[in-house]
Amino acid sequence: MFFAAFTSSMIVRQGVTPDWLHFSLPRVMYVNTLILLASSFTLELARRRFLGVSNSVSATTADDQYLVSKGMYWMYVTGGLGLLFVLGQLLAWRDLRDQGLYLATNPSSSFFYVFTGTHAIHLLGGIG
Q1: DSSP for residue 27
Q2: Domain limits of the chain?
Q3: Phi and psi at residue 49, in whole multiples of 5°?
Q4: Which terminal residue of the chain has fewer beta carbons within 10 Å of its beta carbon, N or C?
Q5: pLDDT digits (tens, 9 = 90+) for 34-80
Q6: Distances from the Cα of 29 to the Cαs of 60, 76, 88, 110, in angstroms?
Q7: Which residues contact 122 (CB under 8 A, 6 or more apart)?
Q8: What is the 8-class DSSP label of residue 107?
Q9: Which phi and psi (to 5°) does residue 114 adopt?
């Protein structure tokens, strides 16, 4: 809900103010989008492996152990992709800094930094 409300306020703010400046997104943002899509896919692979494990208390069969190990493998891959995403965010912020765009430069850069920063914190919390 936070991201939906924040996106809504960004759209409204953009439409009612003359001081909104558009800027080019750093190219790493497009790579980050692919990383997020890939992490959604790997998370789904992990979920499916975990759902295949028996529900009984004594589910220690070789098949169950295999599914758990494969599920954990995909969870680690997902976490690694999350860390790559955060690294990409840091690179994007560095690129914007090099362009002279900071948190307080204009409303559009402020929204970008707050939105991507909050998303990075959200991701780090999920990884943790």
Answers
A1: T
A2: 2-127
A3: -65, -45
A4: N
A5: 999 999 999 999 999 888 876 655 556 788 888 889 999 999 999 99
A6: 43, 23, 7, 16
A7: none
A8: H
A9: -65, -45
